[in-house]
Fold these 3 entries.
Entry 1:
Amino acid sequence: MIGIETLDEFIIRKQDELPYTKGELSRLLRDIGLAAKVVNREVNKAGLVDILGTTGAINVQGEEVKKLDVYANTRFIAALKLGGQCSGIASEETKDIIVFDDEISKNAKYIVAIDPLDGSSNIDVNVSVGTIFSIYRQVSSMGPPTLQDFLQKGSEQVAAGYIVYGSSTMLVYTTGHGVNGFTLDPSIGEFCLSHPDMQTPKSGKIYSINQGYFVSFPEPVKQYIRYCKQEDKATNRPYSLRYIGSMVADIHRNLISGGIFIYPPTKEAPRGKLRLLYECNPISFIVEQAGGRASDGYKRILDIEPKELHQRTPIFIGSEEMVLKAEEFISDYPSA
Ligand code: P6P
């Protein structure tokens, strides 16, 4: 394949940028890439085999667990355990941390927070879904990781990425040295570099928010939405509303085209819906590395000190100028 660089080749070529690791992080990233290919195979045929629908279980979020959620969770946990580079996992699907305390993991240096299949309510209607992962060094002394290892600020991440299972399947990740996107070529079963050094536009014409909850948004958020809908050619308004209820797909579109994604506080969910550890932190790391901005309206997402594993945070994320504008509406609003 002239001119094609696979994910594995890219990871190895870029390894020298990571002075603190002697290949362990590279192997961990490759383990994730392999699991993504296995999950992709099931996602792509979900309509054909008996993994549509629900398991009847309810996860720690109180949400109905889709069969593909369970499958994806199982596959990523197995791949990370077998790879030997990961000492523990925090998963959206499991209440407590999963600790690997066995021979193969005894020298593992990293922990992973993961949303194995985000947007799974879209599976049965064939809308893109995604996997989101976040990687930290284990900071507690050698031996099994503790809860504290998972409550590090997002700015401590050593790598983060997502897989979007869409019209094509892409893996997008960063190690803090820019963002690169790889498209799965099913004919060779490899993720191939297709979007080198991704940079998100400084502004855009898309705003993404579930306007169905408009009545329960804080007033500054309502004012910003009205701003998005006003006509003003000089600032490319009105913007277009694009929201499909699958964070990875909405973020991926806005990362490439420019735009802002907002999941604000609501009366029912004062801390918003999205989780800090395995949705907002990894996605914010990627968007910042691509030149964008991510905050909770007041504070940089990556500076938030996590207090619990599944904690939620409001999020305003995307093109820098658009997020700054939304923050202006919030800071200009007399605090209640
Ligand atoms: P709502 C999917 O359930 C998810 O976690 C994200 O992928 C998505 O952005 C959000 O929730 C959608 O939530 O409340 O708009 O349906």
Note: The mean pLDDT is 92.
Entry 2:
Amino acid sequence: MTRSWAEPWKIKMVEPLTMTTREHRESEIGEAGYNTFLLRSDDVYIDLLTDSGTTAMSDRQWSAMMLGDESYAGANSFYKLVDAVRDVYGYDELIPTHQGRGAEHLLSQILISPGDVVPGNMYFTTTRFHQEYAGGRFVDVIIDEAHDPRSMHPFKGNIDLAKLASIVHEVGADRIAYVSFETNVNLAGGQPASMENIKAVYAFCRTLDILVMLDATRALENAYFIQQREGGYADRSIASILREIANNSDGATVSSKKDNLVNIGGFLALRDPDLARKARALLVAFEGLHTYGGMSGRDMEALAEGIREMVHTDDHVRSRVGQVEYLGNTLLKYGVPVVTPIGGHGVFLDAAAMLPHLTQDELPAQALAAAIYVDSGVRGMERGIVSAGRDPETGDNRHPNLELVRLTIPRRVYTQSHMDVVAESVIEVCEHRETIRGLQFVYEPDSLRFFQARFEQIPV
Ligand code: F0G
């Protein structure tokens, strides 16, 4: 008999959910311009919009908040955060920010000169925005398998060393601002890089004096996949694998709203004190004084505790990814096209495969996310042509290979029964897929358009 695993926690406080009627949801999605970002959370039943800031904190984190030192300068809570980041990730220089994009902003401003190239393993929306905003040009150097939703490559987050070498050769090492290496690549479907690849990229860059900056937002989940899939790591603790990932980099930006188990916060971590000085000079202008940056003392307390808690035992990440895999495998069993292997933070529905009657310009993933919401009140997010935005040089829509709806699982929030309800809704929508109509823009913001764009159904 196979034995079940269960969450390594029990529930101490609950937040009631309400179910709405289909009629109500039809009216709300129209009001929201078919954009799930514009729905009110009261109208949502199970919220899988994002795993960002949606974590349930532990009793220890809530009690740590009472210890928050709100001193403007030199707060004790800051030094606890410095210690936690040094102990768990091994970086000495800590620059606290209000969330991940605050750290990306500072990093981009200190390292990118106009015309520089930033190679990276697929883009993330805010990361690329800040790289371009600083005058850089992002070049995707992820392996080809990452763009194929059906490839079963175990490390679809890997950087293709030949692509990296080729862009370095083309522009010269001195025009490479840094290599932007995302762990557990979000837009590829929560897909990890192997330790072998992380080490090889760092070794290659060191020979050319190119910095490697991790986006370590989901490095914990990446460490879990290394433990499960890479030879020689099965008996290693998650804590030691995470540390080894960080050891192969010159610094990292982290959105602490994910792995780190808090609702707000982030940081830039560096090894080089001179670079850290430059970042702190900007920090005081854009975020706050260097010992709180963008966070209150209580937020830094909760974050320091969250960073230690996430690696305290391996059980946390095993059950976190296990829940995502449970949902993904249920959908696969019923023939729903999803990105494989199932990722670390969510299940990514392949909208292009599911809605072959729509062209990519008819925004299939946006339409599918809206249809799932109408069916059950489950809220997911478009990750396709709308999220990819326009090419800043030509102004044309980018056409990414992946046209996905992301069902992102918050940490420690929902139970297996919630996952069953989600799966049943997606399966049902999939059975009536041909009734889903395409969408067109009625309002398109200039940058990061997916957050606030509005759409209407294309007239028949
Ligand atoms: N990097 C990655 C890989 C992310 O997934 C995010 C945020 C950020 C950076 C930016 O961090 O939101 O704290 O400013 N991802 C959220 C998501 C928004 O839903 O995937 P932030």
Note: The radius of gyration is 21 Å.
Entry 3:
Amino acid sequence: MNADQLKKMAAEAALSEVKDGMIVGIGTGSTVNFFIDALQSVRHRIEGAVPSSAASRERLITAEIPVLELNVTGNLPLYVDGADEATQHRDLIKGGGGALTQEKVIAAASQRFICIIDQSKLVDILGAFPLPVEVIPMARSYVARQLVALGGTPAYRMDFVTDNGNVILDTHNLDISRPGELEQQINNIPGVVTNGLFSQRKADQLIIAGPDGLKIID
Ligand code: 5RP
């Protein structure tokens, strides 16, 4: 099975979490795109979906799934998203697609967060994948120096602007043995909008697809 087949398998497994009348929070990325495809088949049973990016919004519109705004819906019963890395403890690195801030807001506003991944994303310790940090443009250089002081090696994501008009520093070489502490420490740097560690609000469930089938971690 190739990576896309595994992503599709994880995404389709999450469909059983979708109940009649729900408003579903929707993450961003290739795995979530498979989930949107699956959600299309039950679109008449749900009230709608709240996207975490312009890309997911477009995909929902194409799938004829009603797009709703978080400011109008209030908190959500369910959020489904992928990840760049995940641990057995359900701590995540996200933001490879640059949608981390809206993803973090919707995850925080959701009662249940299901994370769908293929098994290549499961790691013992986070950090082989560089940690995305969303920064307001005028603070880029200052925040980069602060990330270096934390032991990181930030790289400016070239030719990329987030849906919020900001830039991304992909930060290598961080020690992420205590993800919750580091998440807070980086978020405390003035100019940081948020970082891609999802530990304070981690996933409630991982659905992991591998060649031998699905594994669930609650
Ligand atoms: C986007 C994300 C994605 O969830 C993450 O990058 C995983 O993407 P994919 O499913 O394409 O591997 O955080 O900001």
Note: Residues 27-31, 81-84, 94-100, 103 surround ribulose-5-phosphate (CB under 6 Å).
